Fold these 4 entries.
Entry 1:
Amino acid sequence: MINPFALLEQQLTALGMIPAPLIVVAVIVAKILVIVLPLMGGVAYLTLAERKIIGWIQVRNGPNRVGPLGLLQPIADALKLLTKEMVVPSGASRFLFLIAPILALGPALAAWAVVPFGSEVVLANINAGLLYILALTSLGVYGIIVAGWASNSKYAFLGAMRSAAQIVSYEIAMGFALVGVLIAAGSLNLGDIVNAQRGALGPGSWFFVPLFPLFVIYFISGVAETNRAPFDVSEGESEIVAGFHVEYAGMGFALFFLAEYANMILVSGLASVLFLGGWLSPLPWLTSVPGVGLFFMDGIHWFLGKTAFFLFLFLWFRATFPRYRYDQIMRLGWKIFLPITMVWIVVVAAMVVWHMPPWFAAGARG
């Protein structure tokens, strides 16, 4: 497989006019742009997909006026937010008020540095990738807390406190679920975790089978961490107006909006990598079929398809379930998810130590 970034580095080096450190920086910037620009486009059109899908579930059309089939609606929304004034409330801490949206969006984008899209398609193939993900995703809560405190508004502060408590509660369960993946794969490298799911059973070798309780808890915790319905108590309109971002307008609100949807894509992408084999094909035995064999080979299209499936679940949940009460959310996280994850970690460790077939038997993985 040709690495386009290695080719770019070779071409720039062959020119002989650019210093080596600048070439390294140029290649890194190119990698970042290749990830961030499609991600921002995906975030924009995820909003359109949400409105369309929820519209179809509720037997209506959704956006259909701006452009053919409403496809230009995200661009119209972006232009509207760009032209709106961002007002800093009197008595607010101006510096913290302005930096809070960046603190919310930054970790959601930076986490993609270690997410592998394919066997060799990753920005930074570091050995502690899973640890890096845990560290960065835990930083997102600071943007919410800072936004609520700096707004000088009791509604915003109350929303921030509710959101922070919810995120911290479910991050513990999510962290334990990822510990189960670490035990099963024996590595913190996300590429190694995907390769550990390669086996003779095809999809049956993926970690969602032996780690099914952890898989379910991880995804539900991801929904709660992103403050999505039915866990969106931080912005319960009937109780606290719009929660922590009630004082934000224009691009400040847009950045919080982008952070929420970027986190949805991140949680979905990680779910596909950690539990559904990432770029691995679900039908590897069809690669020899003439005409369609190429499609059934391992590749980035499988990673994108699995990620899209989890994103659809996010939207389906929002259209289906009513909002939980705050005490129900806390009880689910602390009294149900946390004990289940701790018990299943012990079960997974026992399966690994005793080489439980077919997933952890000696030589079971390809």
Note: The chain is about 65% helix and 0% strand.
Entry 2:
Amino acid sequence: MSASAPSIEPVAPSGAAGARARRTGPYRPASWNTVGLLLVVPYALLFLLFVLYPVLYGFSLARDPQSYVRLWQDPVFGNAVLNSALFLLVVVNIKFVLALFLSGFFVHERWWIRILAVLFILPWAVPSIPTILSFRFMLNPEWGIINTVYFNLTALDGPNWLNDRWIAFSMAGMVHIWKSLPFWTLILVTGRLAISKDLYEAASVDGASRWQQFRHITWPSIATLYITCTLLSMIWTLGDFNSVYLLTGGGPSDLTHVLATLGIRYLRLDQVDMAMATIVVATPLVLPLMVYMMKRLSRGPGED
């Protein structure tokens, strides 16, 4: 019977040396810190030059309290706030309800659905200027293709699509949905594809209907993604001016302006302080959305 060799356990350093080792961890050369700082410097300069400086300069242009008094007294501003709120609360939510249901269609693995998916993504992939201007030409009350076809079928003149406030605003909302719907549908499709198919197979064996599968499997799995994308889309939509500016130009009579296009209107009138004040006024609408979204993203998977 052979005797086993005694085990020798490492002795942890004691005293000041041990405390220093536990505090500092593995040794790194001082040159590493220098290299790290050198790599951070270009990013810091770009951030200061292209992010922080423009923001501070914009706030400095809007520092005069009289700019906000004149902005409040401008009747166009009230309409712009109302239109922006309608865009955020109505148009964005209609867009995401459509994206939610369309994602359930495009998630199926059939060859013809894949072809439709490629065609469906084209409005988002094509630049905004030619696509939205093409809508503006089609909606022209005199020679637009929509009223031309309507007249050939009914012998009646079509409506002035862009000369009525609410019709023009609805057309701008429709164009916004048509333009951005493919992107958000694709995001929700990726969320659906991340759900295990075994859950749906088990639910089918148990006799669950399509609605029950959506309610108890699909929605709980993509609810966080859906809400986060909705908030992010609201933030982007608040700063988006393409759908309104390219289609209606804020007309008729400046009644379809949103906050983003109102700032451009003031710039064209050479009222830079008013334009910057419009952006500052929109900030309280953006910050709560950003704070709420970051809180949701920072929660753990088991937290509500």
Note: The chain has 13 helices and no strands.
Entry 3:
Amino acid sequence: MSLDDALLTRLAERAETLLARIESLLPQTPEPDWDAAVAFRWRRRHSALGAQSWLAPVRHRGMISLDDLHNIDEAKRLIERNTRQFVAGRPANNVLLTGSRGTGKSSLIKACLNAHAAQGLRLIEVDKTDLVDLPDIVELVADRPERFIVYCDDLSFEEGEPGYKALKVALDGSVAAASDNVLIYATSNRRHLMPEKMSENLAAKHTEDGEIHPGETSEEKISLSERFGLWVAFYPFRQDDYLAVAAHWLGHFGCTAAQIESARGDALRWALERGSRSGRVAWQFARDWAGSHGKQIRQADAPSAAKPGRTKAGRTKTAKRATPEKANGSAAAGSARSIGLRSR
């Protein structure tokens, strides 16, 4: 081998080594550890070489169950039935859960995951800003045997946000067929996910400057929410509902019947200060009141807080139904059910 050939060989070897190092720095999506968890978060990191995205396992998820959620019987029936169909490989719909804050929308999705994880259900949490990556997520899991719910919490859009169009295409609109093992579940306080302004109605004038078809602006705004096949609405608590749920959680933390009755006034003041009566507020009050009276938190409570809610179908008398004992119930929980922080 001549000197020139030897030099060229060394240069080629060094070039291959350099390219291998550069390739390791380039953005790529590593293969997730599917056995590490049943819930994952889609993560994105920006660098000088571009954006790197990957699925990060959630090691400690909230262990809330469907039995922990009260007064949302119709919502539980709809969502659990849809999820059960999906896990069984039957047709199912994407789901949009809308309504008042703190009424159990997110908790219901987490409870469905825990109920069906053993049957192969998995959950991928995606931030609104990362919805542009939905095609990559679907492609990543399309060949997996598990069933995946892509979950986006507190979803709403302002005009011009890129995730709006990406979600529309992912729901129904891409030339590619939708993956059979992926559904999208989203929660929002906005029914149509987009702000709807009175000025848009006022601007609809049949003048030289007005739109020829002003109704098309409204059609564009509601077109995203209509691509969810199943809508479930949640409604605010009445005072009796709020007090009953607060009593339930006080019993859950080990408060006695007498303590639960004495906490009624404090529960009402707590809700008044926050301007809201919801399952979340009741849960927060119970944690504060029980902790200040020397109760110990149970290990099962640490990861997550159940937030009972109420749907339209559950507007009938629900104060007594709002405080059933949990599956691992105690005598204190039974006392809470009988007292229910009676509203006078």
Note: The CA atoms of residues 86 and 199 lie 41 Å apart.
Entry 4:
Amino acid sequence: MIRAKAFAPFESTRNQRVKLVEHDSALQGPDSAAPLQPMPAGASDSQPADLRARSGDSGGLAQGGAHRAHGDVQAAHDGQAGPGAGPGAELVVDGVSVAFGEKPHRVQALDRLSFTLRPGEIGCLLGASGCGKTTALRAIAGFVRPQQGSIAIGGREIASPRRWVAPERRGVGVVFQDYALFPHLNVAANVAFGLRHLSAGQRARQVERMLELVGLPAVGTRFPHELSGGQQQRVALARALAPAPSVLLLDEPFSNLDPDLRERLALDLRDILKRHGTTALLVTHDQYEAFALADSIGVMNAGHIEQWDSAYRLYHQPQTRLVADFVGLGAFLPGRLEQRNGCACVDIELGTLPILTRSDRAHADATANARGDVTVLLRPDDVIHDDSSPLQAEVVRKAFRGASFLYTLRLPSGAQLLALVPSHHNHAVGERIGIRFGADHVVTFRSD
């Protein structure tokens, strides 16, 4: 049995400060963790991280979070803040590569991954399972050591082939997918878990500030099982923010919540992080979470970023076919690039699409073959329902979405496309409706 000091509040109200008293608490079972012993004076922050549990001790985790054993991380950091740049530090990931296993079965999880988050910016790594996004988060946290490239926080290099800073000394906070709240500690004690380097009064004030920040000022004496999933997520966030990490990492924090709740909480979380001035990185496979939370999004594939951009540009101006497929819905139709009256345009089955911007023209020129053949991306909101249009399409599928229907339409050639139509236009499957093209830009890719 491992025994550690924890802090339990005996009263918490909106108008009265939380009072914390020290008591001995036995931490047992796989869902609990013992605190890391303070680093000896003069110890180097660049020493290799030995994350295996030692007798009477256990490996550290990025500050402000508790984590169940996941192979290489077996216990939570006690909140002894590592040297960091403070909230809102710049994060630079430069050419990071990580591989697992030995040849010929070696798996390249990250392949020269590079991106930068400015101080206070919220970024997201978005991709399907196996794309490398979680490995990237683990490398930043210090749970995985890159074989190539470097990671820096606030101008301080924390990982490279020549330097390695232990996870607990990086100034990084983590909100895990399952929140990893201690079930035997109440809310205030969970939030205070990473603050043992502060005095009792400072801990109480910081716990109160964090619970106010996440909109839960009156739940300090409640236990995790007494909270909703959304409230547990907020408590996990408060705990991660309490030690003022330089960078906050979020590992699919909404995956355990109902779909209707995810986007609302993502927007709330964005407001909290912006008020706190926190640099944060989210990893997720859900594009709507990414859209709601992040300033910049990197779509990942095979260990590298296909495109790092705003949500708007990823949707309306994807640079690769993979990004166009993964972000949003759409259909791809064959087209031909033409010149008419000194203007560029693309002919498709829907008609002639004028190319209005220089960037669209440059992209079309780069993707057209010698005959001018291209593939054109049409989003559902590019296709307008118009009863007066001579072009007719057959409704082959419909999905009700409240304010709109998502129709799958078949053109006379047999090609299919999607149209988002206001729900008062309720057409039956098999019915033919008039459509026209309504976008102000043309997105092209190489012809198949």
Note: The two ends are 63 Å apart (CA to CA).
